[in-house]
Amino acid sequence: MTDSHDIHARIDDAKHVASDAARRTADAVEHNPLAIVAGGLAIGALAGALIPRSAKEKELLAPLGRTLGERARGAVQAAREAGASELQNAGLSKDAAKDQVKSLFQGIAKAASTAGSAAVKTAANKA
């Protein structure tokens, strides 16, 4: 009888452990669903990386990969051109920026020269 009682006790313990694990999992999903989704994606990516592709998958997916790559390159190029166009329309070209920096440095140099001259004149007048 002890064996039967022991087996039933272990089964009850296993049921409680499983029930607690299920409850904790449900609580985790409820409180942080994005982490669960991210974890699922990570597990899926890992499984996909570890499971070798079949010849049929390669045959079927290679054209899709090329098409997606071409579209991505086209989208990047279009974004680059649109951004450059907007900067040009706003007067923010490379040459305009160089001119503004040059003008700024000339203004700083002139201000420093004027300040230096004023300091020299003031020092000479007091002497």
Automatic annotation (TrEMBL):
This is DUF883 family protein. The keyword Transmembrane helix applies. The chain crosses the membrane at residues 33-51. Keywords: Membrane, Transmembrane, Transmembrane helix. It comes from Sphingomonas kyungheensis.
